[in-house]
Amino acid sequence: MVGRMSTPSFADLTTIGVGGPIARFVEPDSRVGVIEAVTDADEKGLPLCVIGGGSNLLVSDEPFMGVVVRDARRTISVPDEVAPVEGADRTVHVNAEAGANWDDLVEFCVRLGLEGVEGLSGIPGTVGASVVQNIGAYGQEVGSSVDTVEVWDRKTLKVEELSADQLGFGYRTSALKTSMYQAPATPADEFFPTPRYVVLSVTFALRHSATGVVNFPQLAKALGVEVGDRLETAAIRDAVLKVRASKGMLEDPNRYYNEWMRDTKKPENVEAAFGGLYAATGSLDRDWNRHSCGSFFMNPQLTPEQAAKLPEDAPRFDVTLPDGSAGVKTSAAWLIDHAGFHKGFGVGDDAAATLSTLHTLALTNRGSATAEDVAKLARTVQDGVERAFGVRLVPEPVCVGIDLR
Ligand SMILES: Cc1cc2nc3c(=O)[nH]c(=O)nc-3n(C[C@H](O)[C@H](O)[C@H](O)COP(=O)(O)OP(=O)(O)OC[C@H]3O[C@@H](n4cnc5c(N)ncnc54)[C@H](O)[C@@H]3O)c2cc1C
After folding, report:
1. Looking at ligand 1, which residue's alpha carbon is closest to its atom 52?
2. Per-residue pLDDT tens for 375-398?
3. 203 to each of 136, 148, 162, 196, how far by Cα in Å?
4. 295 labelled catalytic
5. What residues make up the domain containing 385?
6. Among 56, 205, 284, 339, which lies 20 to 30 A Cα-Cα from 383?
């Protein structure tokens, strides 16, 4: 167990930098320690929040009268190192403990010449949480590279190894995430704000290849290639980080100066992130556009009838809805912008929480915002989009003590 004298607040632990004080904070550094910390809270009936990088959490300003557990295990390894390349498809397995920083994993895989996660470069957070919401970007989703996930089942009190099939990955969701909700943005009675299944480690199945596929038009444009072309994974990672930086969709590396975040990401990768911050902004100072939860709203998935009511020029992509029927995905950013909420929008003058000045979909803390300020901005946007288009946006972050239905 990592020993500390005091406890942090959620403002210390989250990328958006808001949220109240925490009654009990534990950082187990062994597998059994994680299970014991979770079981102890569950047995006592205390609210439990297993936190990773705090990049997908919006927590209320009120004190959290429960236990926050942060897994301090961060080892990344290649289990079949003796015979690392398996079969004609050149599969290599990589295992990472849940507390490992996600981008440390991506950097490790790219350096080792492994293909499969390079498009997910720069997404903040941990390996443990990556599978909860099936992180995705630039044409890749983590679910496609997952072999198995080792979890602690808080209901059966057993360790289970779940296969990719059992994990039910979908657009920003998985069976882990659905165990937390009874309806969109509506917490389940039993397990919230942490799923029934606490992720202990993830084994990825990657491909031994120095090149990867460029799967996204914006990325292809930045690289000067066609969608579908193959390029070095290192070049793809570099381009993804630059495109993300230009939109402020990276975390601010300054957060690693906070004593509660120190040592949670490899120092050389924090240093590289400072290099990227300087290249993008010309300064090493805090960049408030990065004090966010990333995309705050999910892209709505609509029935054909709902989609028919959208303006003709609204973006439309064919998708399969969770019930298996054909549906249409539209762009939350487009709806927000066309409802009149442009980059930098805030409620009132000198608002402490505003939309990012670089990206309509990111709600940001300009330095002194409270969770209530962020919630007020979120509700204003939700109400405005609903008035304009009849679509209620669903938040992507896990909202604790804040109702954004
Ligand atoms: C600037 C920025 C850009 C982003 N870009 C993207 C993007 O491109 N694509 C994307 O998909 N997401 C993106 N995100 C969202 C976020 O980075 C991901 O959701 C990430 O996986 C969250 O990881 P975390 O460790 O920070 O989770 P946290 O915020 O700490 O937790 C989120 C949820 O996961 C649960 N959880 C955490 N660890 C575990 C565990 N070990 N077992 C079970 N449950 C756990 C928590 O209890 C909580 O319910 C972005 C966020 C930011 C701030």
Report:
1. 294
2. 999 999 999 999 999 999 999 999
3. 17, 5, 10, 20
4. yes
5. 301-400
6. 56
